[in-house]
Specification:
The complex is a heterodimer of chains A (313) and B (354). Chain A has 313 residues and is mainly alpha-helical. Chain A contains 15 helices and no strands. The relative contact order of chain A is 0.12. Classes of the chains: A mainly alpha (313), B mainly alpha (354).
Chain lengths: 313, 354
């Protein structure tokens, strides 16, 4: 097991280098010369040359890339071009609100989607199953934007059940209590349909297996059969879904954060793209890529733990 | 795409062994839901072809009605909401300019006087503006029907061309990786792992930040980020097919590598590519809507579903819901039809799955 993990970590190095190369190509080569963005008004030759020297743009491209890699390895992402705050500091301040929203959302999704999926899969082919399947198809056809726009308008603006938007900078718990519920409900509305469909197909597949018939034949109650045997086998896709969604957890739900004014990573990223604030975008991209690779590894280790038949190669 | 293959194969249909495509077509015709969705998708394609050739909705930018004219069928309930807004917006209603400086004190007084004298020359021809349209009008009095049709064409064209390019990239890279294996495969798999370790939306935004906005950039950005699924599929298929007997036979008669890859193997997996294309179409249209909504999508001179939705939050607050309704109807219809058609195509063309 340990040798497997070590080998996987070793394999991450070229991928991470590749991500850095991609980010470098996109921002340093395709992105053009950023000095004009930085210089603002009153551009002079000396100013541009000064900025070039500061950013290392006067060096050759391979040298610049080497410089970039060293910076990343030292976790030195520089300062934001628009606010001059350190990028690491910005990211540290933004991760809390993002996790408060997406972490709660993930738990809420699992607690609703899996029971519904088991219920409809158990009654497959019957009225409830067909109704839920049709509802899911209809719900998935509407853009997630529409849910958020209409939900915010109807539940917060018209009915006044929730604050329209906002965040309490002083107390995360307070914000969680007041400002998270509506984004949570809307996030759930967007993701419930695809998740129910996804999990349903796995549970249906498991219910057709021979061991289910055996469990029934030896007189196990339906509940034990469903929750002890079937659920455990259907857990693999659940782990896959959860671990692949964990990097997005860090990134936060961009649209929800933008609509509800939550100062999270997703909102920060959108602001950075709006203002061409390249250091922030670069840092977020590399951080999320690292998170993705780490959680992929975690998923494989978890498979082994859940299902000892899985062989790690 | 399908029809072309059909006509190519028409002589073969006379002989007993029928092609995969004609069998698939037979199966699709029997699938009632799939067949209806096919016709809906075809209808959408006709609409975008008409918009593309400027036969339909080319005048979506014309101001044909009063601002926020309500839909004709909902006029009664909506007039109360619009009255206040139209009164404030009609400039003739204001009592001339507010004078705070006398012309002598005003440093640009003379210019303003001259401009006023010339004003008559530039007066626009007064047009009769409708106070209600079939689906209402937007803030500038543009017809929502025309605007949404133009938006449909933009969004679908972005989706279609983006999905085509993405399938093309994925197929070429996947074919090379799967067919040649070894070092080529290692390199392309590395390339693939780099792209998959960054979430799609993040990659899209990073590209959008650098490339700016516009129709063509959007297509490029969308296809650069979405080729990975096709790559994996095609790579696995090519690995499976490369040692099959028919490929060995092609090798024996001296077919080159490229010929074996794209003339012998590719037609055998083309039905998978069609399914992949329609899956991508839905997801790219959804991405386009989000990007355009955020302002990183199509340019400001174009209209798409996303840019229309961008106007909606402010409109809803004032009680103008018709633009939202029109977009939601069109988009849901298309997305549902394409999704159902994808399922039907998969059932029809890939009988092993089930």
């Amino acid at each position: 097991m340990l040798s497997y993990i070590l080998r996987r970590v070793w394999q991450m190095i070229p991928t991470l280098l590749g991500v850095m190369l991609l980010v470098f190509i996109v921002f340093n080569w395709a992105g053009g010369d950023p000095s004009y963005i930085l210089a603002g008004k009153g551009v002079s030759k000396e100013l541009i040359a000064n900025i070039h020297a500061q950013l290392g743009l006067d060096k050759s491209l391979p040298e610049q890339f080497l410089l970039f890699v060293t910076q990343v390895l030292h976790l030195d992402f520089g300062v934001s071009w628009s606010t001059q705050q350190s990028v690491i500091g910005i990211m540290a301040a933004r991760i809390g609100p993002s996790l408060a929203l997406t972490g709660t959302l993930l738990v809420a999704e699992l607690l609703t989607a899996i029971p519904i999926a088991i219920l409809v899969a158990y009654h497959r082919g019957k009225l409830i199953d067909r109704t839920v399947t049709i509802l899911c198809t209809v719900a998935m056809s509407v853009s997630s934007l529409v849910y958020i726009i209409v939900g915010q308008y109807a539940l917060a603006y018209k009915l006044g059940w929730f604050p329209v938007m906002g965040w309490d900078d002083k107390s995360l718990f307070n914000s969680w209590l007041h400002y998270i519920p509506l984004p949570l409900i809307l996030g759930l509305a967007v993701s419930l349909a695809p998740e129910v469909r996804f999990y349903r197909s796995f549970v249906v597949e498991e219910l057709n297996q021979d061991y289910v018939r055996t469990a029934r034949a030896k007189g196990l109650s339906e509940r034990v059969m469903l929750f002890k045997h079937v659920l455990r086998n259907a857990l693999i896709p659940v782990v896959t879904a959860v671990t692949t969604s964990l990097p997005f957890l860090v990134l936060g739900s961009m649209l929800l954060e933008r609509f509800f004014g939550i100062p999270g990573m997703g909102n920060e990223l959108l602001l950075a793209v709006d203002k061409s604030d390249f250091p922030v975008i670069k840092a977020i991209t590399i951080a999320i890529a690292c998170a993705t690779m780490f959680f992929n590894l975690l998923a494989d280790v978890l498979y082994k733990w859940i299902d000892p038949r899985v062989e790690l190669k | 795409m399908q029809d072309m293959t059909m006509t190519n194969n028409s002589p073969a249909e006379l002989t007993p062994p029928r092609s995969l495509w004609s069998l698939g077509w037979q199966r699709l015709k029997r699938d009632r839901v799939g067949f209806v969705s096919l016709w809906i998708v075809v209808a959408f394609l006709v609409v975008i072809a008409l918009c593309w050739t400027r036969l339909l909705a080319s005048n979506w930018g014309e101001e044909v009605a009063v601002p926020y004219a309500p839909p004709t069928w909902a006029k009664g309930e909506a007039t109360a909401a619009t009255n206040g807004a139209t009164d404030a917006n009609v400039l003739g209603g204001a009592n001339g300019p507010i004078i705070t400086l006398t012309p002598e004190e005003d440093p640009i007084g003379k210019d303003i006087e001259a401009a006023r004298a010339d004003a008559g020359k530039y007066q626009l021809k007064a047009t009769v503006k409708a106070d209600a349209l079939f689906m209402g009008a937007d803030v500038r009095g543009r017809s929502v029907v025309n605007k949404v049709l133009a938006g449909t064409s933009t969004s679908m064209l972005v989706g279609i061309f983006g999905a085509l390019l993405s399938v093309l990239i994925g197929t070429c890279l996947g074919a090379f990786a799967g067919y040649f294996g070894r070092a080529v495969d290692d390199f392309l798999m590395w390339f693939y792992s780099v792209f998959t370790s960054v979430p799609d939306m993040l990659l899209l935004l990073a590209f959008a930040a650098v490339c700016g906005r516009g129709f063509l950039t959007l297509i490029m950005v969308l296809s650069f980020t979405s080729w990975t699924a096709t790559f994996r599929l095609v790579r696995a298929e090519f690995m499976k097919h490369r040692s099959r007997e028919y490929v060995q036979a092609a090798d024996a008669i001296g077919a080159s590598h490229l010929r074996r890859m794209f003339v012998h193997i590719l037609p055998n997996i083309s039905h998978l590519l069609l399914v992949q294309f329609s899956l991508l179409l839905v997801s790219l249209i959804k991405y386009e809507v989000i990007l355009s909504f955020l302002g990183f999508g199509v340019s400001v001179r174009q209209v798409s579903w996303g840019s229309i939705l961008g106007e909606v939050p402010a409109e809803l607050m004032q009680g103008y819901w018709w633009q939202l309704l029109a977009v939601v109807i069109m988009m849901s219809l298309l997305v549902t039809a394409v999704s159902l058609l994808t399922d039907a195509l998969r059932d029809a063309l890939d009988p092993k799955v089930k």
